[in-house]
Automatic annotation (TrEMBL):
Pfam families attached to this UniProt entry: FAD_binding_3 (PF01494)
Record-listed E.C. numbers: 1.3.7.11
Enzyme class (EC, first level): oxidoreductase
Organism: Haloarchaeobius amylolyticus
Gene Ontology molecular function: oxidoreductase activity
This protein's UniProt keywords: Oxidoreductase
Entries under PANTHER family matching the protein: DIGERANYLGERANYLGLYCEROPHOSPHOLIPID REDUCTASE, GERANYLGERANYL DIPHOSPHATE REDUCTASE
Domain of life: Archaea
Protein's UniProt keywords contain Oxidoreductase: yes
FAD-binding domain boundaries: 5-299
Name of the molecule in the record: Digeranylgeranylglycerophospholipid reductase
Length: 416
């Protein structure tokens, strides 16, 4: 095996594998180090709900054979109301999707080393020059990229990311058959991705049903372990208890059966990044993190961050006279804030405010969305201030006051 490459990538998830895919297509020598064994990949990292949109499928050339179900709509639910928006999407078989990215990039020349756990950076003259893995094995690169997700062994040691426990989101999902997809009293979930806001099911978070064909669906929930969760949660409930409670009380699951071996658990951090890169180094995907703070969509964001990092690496490596210093890699920050997560801070504030609201306010939100024009939610989702303002009225004074107090406490806490 070689010990020197143009680019070394830690992690073969959507961000890392897409970055390798783009770099290999440009003819660079790239190696990807993946913790899992090749014959099992991605059994341990098959953790995504895998809901995404046609924009990702088209932009990255993803084939139909990794799609479980194409969808026509997104449904938002509250305890007693719902809102339907026509929006096409796709529910992926996440394991097949990850294997496709690896295979496609490998065919273009990317090298993969499985069963290779990255442990830390190799430093030379104050800059990263490579990584150690499996204890004492080494590999070197002109540029090193951390795509390992929340574990972030390189980004943490280099001081690029500081993932906060209070921003840690956890999730659980099962796949079911026998679900009543069009239950009277609920929205028709045929060919739909449904997200539910209900503190009795996911305090400080949301739950979902993603239709995967006939009477089958992915069903799960996640929440952020922060003040909103503490306010609405039950002390004696784990995340498994909340899912069981939903399955026991929602009539759509009365005759549902869990599919064997189709359980997924995962975690991510919902916070704005302080830094994305340093000399000869970039962090991508959930290492940053790049996940959509409002609705949790991560696949497209991770793919975009991988592509942005590949373009940035190319801008340096194609010129013999350009060193990949922090200054020359700064284009990655520009691309990330423009293409991966525009208006990231506004969307994060929207997320924090949304999860502070009560179940009654969630019901009112659904009614408000039903009466507003179809573009209001889309524009609010992008951080448009005027669209966000249309979602509030005078009855929200107390909610906004609680939100302002929470933000003040967070700001004071960061100064102490």
């Amino acid at each position: 095996m070689n010990d020197r490459y143009d680019v070394v990538i830690a992690g073969a998830g959507p961000a890392g594998a897409q970055c390798a895919r783009d770099l290999a297509a440009r003819g660079y020598d790239v190696v990807v180090l993946e913790t899992e064994a090749e014959e099992e990949f991605p059994r341990q990292s098959n953790k995504s709900t895998a809901g995404t949109f046609h924009s990702m499928m088209a932009a990255f050339g993803i084939p139909d054979d990794v799609v479980m179900q194409y969808t026509d709509s997104v449904v938002l639910e509250s305890p007693t109301e719902h809102y339907v928006r026509e929006q096409t999407g796709a529910v992926l078989e996440f394991a097949d999707f990850k294997r496709f990215l690896v295979k496609d990039s490998h065919e273009d020349g990317a090298e993969y080393r499985f069963d290779a756990r990255v442990t830390g950076p190799i430093m030379e003259n104050g800059e990263i020059a490579g990584v150690t893995y499996n204890g004492d094995e080494e590999v070197y690169g002109d540029i090193v990229i951390d795509a390992t997700g929340p574990s972030a062994p390189l980004a943490k040691q280099l001081g690029v990311v500081d993932l906060k426990r209070e921003n840690h989101a956890i999730g659980i999902e099962y796949e079911f058959e026998g679900i009543d997809i069009d239950r009277p009293g609920f929205a028709d979930l045929h060919d739909a991705m449904m997200l539910r806001l209900d503190h009795n099911i996911a305090p400080g978070g949301y739950s979902w049903i993603f239709h995967t064909g006939e009477d089958t669906a992915k069903v799960g929930l996640c929440y952020i372990q922060n003040g909103s969760h503490d306010q609405y949660s039950r002390n004696d409930f784990t995340i498994d208890d909340y899912l069981d409670h939903w399955l026991e009380t929602d009539p759509r699951f009365r005759n549902a059966t869990r599919l064997e071996g189709k359980q997924h658990r995962g975690s991510a951090h919902i916070q704005a990044p302080d830094q994305l890169h340093t000399d000869r180094f970039m962090a991508i995907g959930d290492t940053v993190p790049s996940i959509d703070p409002l609705w949790g969509e991560g696949i497209h964001k991770c793919m975009l961050s991988g592509r942005a990092a590949a373009a940035t690496a190319d801008s340096c490596l194609k010129h013999d006279s350009v060193e990949p210093t922090a200054e020359n890699l700064d284009v990655y920050e520009t691309l990330w804030h423009r293409d991966v997560a525009p208006n990231a801070n506004r969307r994060l504030l929207m997320t924090q405010l949304l999860y502070l609201a009560s179940n009654e306010r969630y019901d009112k939100l659904m009614r408000d969305l039903q009466r507003l024009d179809n573009d209001t939610l889309a524009r609010a989702n992008k951080g448009d201030i005027r669209a966000i303002a249309r979602l509030f009225d005078t009855d929200d004074v107390s909610l906004l006051a609680r939100f302002a107090k929470q933000q003040l406490n967070l700001d004071l806490g960061s100064l102490l």
